[in-house]
Amino acid sequence: MKLPPALLFALVAALYIGTGFVQSWNSTLTILNMGLVSAIMALGLNMQWGFAGLFNVGVMGFVALGGLASVLIAMPPVPEAWAAGGARLYGGLLLGAASVAAAIFTFNRMPPGRARLLATAAVMLLGFVLYRLTFDPARDAVEAINPAATGYLGGLGLPVIFAWPAGGLLAAGAAWIVGKTALGLRSDYLAIATLGIAEIIIAVMKNEDWLARGVKNVNGIPRPVPYEIDLQQSESFQGWAASANLPVETASTLTVKLLYGCLFASVLILIIIALQLALKSPWGRMMRAIRDNETAARAMGKDVTRRHLQVFILGSAICGMAGAMMTTLDGLLVPGTYQPLRFTFLIWVMVIVGGSGSNLGALLGGLLVWWLWIQVEPLGRLFMEAITWPMPDGSWLKAHLLDSAQHMRLLTMGVVLLLVLRFSPRGLIPER
Amino acid sequence: MDLLNAFVALLNFVIIPAATYGSQLALGALGVTLIYGILRFSNFAHGDTMAFGTTMTILVTWALQGMGITLGILPTALLALPFGIAATALLVLGTDRAVYRFYRRQKAAPVILVIVSIGVMFILNGLTRFIIGVDDQRFADGARFVISARDFKEMTGLAEGLALRSTQALTMIVAAICVVLLFWFLNRTRTGKSMRAFSDNEDLALLSGINPEKVVAVTWIIVAALATIAGVLYGLDKSFKPFTYFQLLLPIFAAAIVGGLGSPLGAIAGGFVIAFSEVTVTYAFKKVATYVLPDALAPSGLLQLLTTEYKFAVSFAILVIVLLIKPTGLFKGKSV
User: Fold this and answer.
1) Contact status, residue A166 vs residue A269, Cβ threshold 8 Å
2) ipTM
3) pTM, 2 dp
4) Distance from CA of A188 to the nearest CA of B (A)
């Protein structure tokens, strides 16, 4: 049974509109905004998996880097912290980077053998000691500046929109490092490498307080859209709300969410157009040829590793952008909330359910799976209330079952993924 | 005497914890490597299989404790372990029947099976949370210490104490027994030999009349046993929290890959390599150094390379270094 894409999109739209009628338009827009962001993440992953067959299970890391970018770009700088040790701190980091470069240089220039290993190790050890000697005092100085409110270097104080491409760049940089080390190896290794790098990125964000306050979180990231409170106080807006027959509070929250939705939708449309053009171009054909038969493509003279690196970087950049957009929407960065089930594996469910290799599929999957992810909880509670209804109140099992309704989410996602893989392995909108 | 103190400190804070953690990782990695060798895919659901097995064991433990049955100085969980293993074996055999067999018959690409295992991971993760919730559960009972730090100091008169918790001793002993049994099974029994043959060359094994479904079923049962034992030992030693088990996936995979995917010997070696590197890199060596070095050279810092939060970074770095030098791992795994 294959449904035409237009009908599928209409069904998803009906789910969102139904949410508006049954719950509230506010929840529809909340789900939709995150759905759009998730769809962008799915497009990024689809580029890696669907176009090129690269198994990336580190989406979370790239998304988190995007989130970091919105702090680094949009928050105001902390001048005292910069004065206390900003320059030394970055000097230390540069020293660290230089020693890694020196180690790679030594490794590449010396003939293989024991001497090479020893020399490389010596260079790395020396670099590490120098780096710690420069970096540690500077870090402590920065983190000592008013730790309750700042304790970090702050950002550049630029408009937050700039964080979106910046998040893409940060993620692309990380992807370059991962790709350089792991893409030449077998596919399982890329999976584990990305899994590892994602955990490391989160560990860095949780522990390096000078960078983005670590687990103390950053809130109040500036917005690209007006604040509800300002709208409520503006007279023209009050008049408009009255003419639309809406309470001012409701009108303002809806307007802000709609503005975010429009921003996200325009980025999404730009990305989809670019990806569709790329997929239909000779480049896209080459990527699929490499995916379908790597050996043949290599024999045709295609530089497979280089192409893989390219598409891996581009896809990760899209995920990074989506991460920056998400943090912009939240207005705060909480490193503890980045969890692989939500930010890596759920994105995988979106891509597989939507149809790997198809951009429209990733879009559909993103919107549909995100809606499910949110709505499974109330639906699960209804379901549990229904099955526990005959049980006596206060029974141990009844309480346990009602409590557990919140865990239905993961179960449902797993079942959806397995059902799609079993009965419609190419997804709802298969690649043509 | 100072050298002796330094050695005791090292033993207490580095060698014993790392050996314990290494045994737990090795048992986990053995499961991953067996699935890789026989079913030929990386099983992302392994961490959650461990969590499920531990959950079942915990429930039986509680029931036994409720009935007043304990093992005295040993943890009651040991008595519950067979039940946990049986439940987990039923679960994985059921999963294989319902999910994996279809793709095996289709001869699907390994990477499809990996994605399928992600679906299974979601379900198991949800199921475990459904049954036992997300909170920390403690289920260790029995004697806490084989030797406590104070007893050791009184016995030897050293300044540095040595504590050996009973869960640590138990972990190492049980892990050693499991490994010996597994290798005996793989090398000496008919089924074990057919498993190895199947892992080495599937077509040849099929030609010589090995029943693949039996091999697969036996593999799953062994994996269920290893996963449950590893999970219970980890839970006894630290504590049980479903999410932690999911996070163990990275060091377990790292151990299996460092040793060479598909090689049981490699999985054990890999487990210890990862565990020892994690512990040594994140341990503050100040104490040991103060004993060994003359006072004039005493270190001012903690002599800690990385804080413990970066232990994932260590597994990952070891993984990358080994792969760059020896792409098939330390013990020549197979490449699919």
Assistant:
1) no
2) 0.91
3) 0.93
4) 7
